């Protein structure tokens, strides 16, 4: 049922949006390209005392102090050692009426592609207890599934599920994926 | 074409407030018996331009009111009226009233204050008062000068004021006096509409007049006299010989017509050319000089850039070009520094902007308290960042108020102490290093050490057997919840204490000190950074992290021997420094870092000021001192306890600036003190 209505929506709402995708622990995630300011390599940060472990510190981005967040740690995925290939995606986030510039550490940048709104499926429902509002939905490109992230909710909200829980959820999404593709 | 005047109203507000400020300061300076012509002129000009501006923008309330001021001032200026203290009072009150009126306009709310009507009545009465005395004399001089002019015409003016004209504070006789200045005037009363005595409302105006004016002045000038009442009156002008000129206030006289004001449109033209400014966010007036300097500096920068660019284009760099590149880079560095300074200069305003309000404040409060005070202002040209200025005014007002209320004695007491009747309060500002020092000095009674000590014991701030130096007792007034006022008076006890003053100054990265001698007076010394954007910092190392500590808070740094360290509990240690015991905050511990030295005896203790108490910070090493540009952490992240901001060091890395009082809170020093006690 839900899929039919979504297809109807697709026809009615044929607007496409460009996403920048990146890879983290062999999952592919996408963020609205309009929120991406720039892509940088990893550089040493200044540690912020008593901050959560996923906050890697702050850097000087041409005179602006920008916090850097490790998305693996945020999602409770095992961390990787940073190296020359580590990528920081600097995004502009709208929080309340404010705009913040935040860098997120990911494994690698993958691609830019357009997604029609109609091709976005809701993330599976994991019950009321988990707020997955920061996942906009799922979509497929050629052979891969991409988890589209709502960057504003992801970085703006303090009420993300427990990190470990989150990694399980993402794993679950992945497990359900083949069926979804076959349809 | 319709011009939206509202875009200019911000300029009007600013100019009016400036005008009012200069009016106020001139009024306060004014010797009533021998008013200085220049002062009167300045005051008059201010009133005049506010009137003009407000009429332009359709702020009729302000315009009508300032017209009264202007009329009075004009008469004083022309020597037709003697200035009195009453006038001075009225004018000062008017400054307040107009400020409120303009404030209401800025906030787009209705203005209603009984003072307005009161003052209007006072002005009207004052204006009516002795104008008759000089009447005769004037008409003689005016008429003689009128006759000498060759192009005299006789204007017949039918003047039918509205029934409410007197209620609005307008007095026809004043207008007639003004007309008399233009030429020879003959006034004929038309009393045909006068009702029976029993039906008469004493506040209403039933009279009409026919005026015959022989003048060489144009009709416009005659009409100007009636400009302010045009809406409420029916006025016909015609030349005696000619057929009546169809010059009459359109459909005037009908009360329903008050909102449409043709008069405002007429005078709108000359004023509407003022430059537009953004209404929000405030604006700043910068001298052309400063702008010129900036432009020059940018020019220099461009030249240096071109020079460096040229070298950059060469494929190989020989020794010679290397040398000129070094020179270029040096130039670039110096230009950048100059540019930074000049950009800062733009925000700098002389502290007289803050000082200016004090003559009035001191005068009013002095009168209220029956104290004679002389206010001395020094160093008014000392420049200070606008944002700092805005934030320092309130604490200063509080301190001055405090000096007046608690510090200065009444004349009788002063005489009995062998001091002159008149007390003095001095505001002094000067630069010292990268700071501005503001002093508030009075020659009053000084602090009552015993009373303060007793109060502090009552409030449980100190224990009875605690031995305190006089100076230490004086510092107690900065404690929260402390007030030396015996009773809550109108002036003190507003819930704002010295602790708030101190906190506000601390928020500006400044400090406040107090020196007081009994019967000699008190001196508050406020030390502030010149700007909020730059800070003199001491770089310190904690493990592999570099932090900045505001230099202004640092007393000294030292290594402490084992025997001077007292351990109170697991995490709380005190260090004995001369006669004091200082709690020590281990920075690495509070920030969760690794450090070279975990024990106080191994590391370096930096004695810093936290809310006027000394504490020690344990760090690994002192690095350089330098000016740092303060950047916000909150813009993109959030507030971090113990950190007030960030800065960028020479190598491009970020260093965090330590917020000492925040760090103390983190460490729970308050508990520690209790332990110690």
TrEMBL record, chain A:
- Please state every residue range assigned to the domain named CheW-like: 16-160
UniProt GO cellular component terms: cytosol
Keyword set includes Cytoplasm: yes
Subcellular localization is given as: Cytoplasm
Q: A Pfam family name for this chain?
A: CheW
- Which keywords does UniProt give here? Cytoplasm
Protein's name according to its UniProt entry: Chemotaxis protein CheW
Species annotation? Shewanella woodyi (strain ATCC 51908 / MS32)
Q: What is the lineage of its organism?
A: Bacteria, Pseudomonadati, Pseudomonadota, Gammaproteobacteria, Alteromonadales
UniProtKB/TrEMBL annotation, chain B:
Extent of Low complexity compositional bias:
140-149
Q: Which reaction does it catalyse?
A: ATP + protein L-histidine = ADP + protein N-phospho-L-histidine
Amino acid composition bias (Polar residues), ranges on this chain: 255-264
Q: What UniProt keywords apply to this chain's record, in alphabetical order?
A: ATP-binding, Chemotaxis, Kinase, Nucleotide-binding, Phosphoprotein, Transferase, Two-component regulatory system
Q: Where is this region: Disordered?
A: 127-153, 245-264
Name-wise, this protein is Chemotaxis protein CheA
Entry's EC annotation: 2.7.13.3
PTM Phosphohistidine: at which residues? 48
Q: Which Gene3D superfamilies match?
A: Histidine kinase CheA-like, homodimeric domain, Histidine kinase-like ATPase, C-terminal domain, HPT domain, SH3 Domains
Alphabetically, the GO molecular function entries are:
ATP binding; phosphorelay sensor kinase activity
Which parts of the sequence belong to the Histidine kinase domain? 329-532
Q: Which residues form the signal peptide?
A: none
The first-level EC class reads transferase
Q: Which organism is it from?
A: Shewanella woodyi (strain ATCC 51908 / MS32)
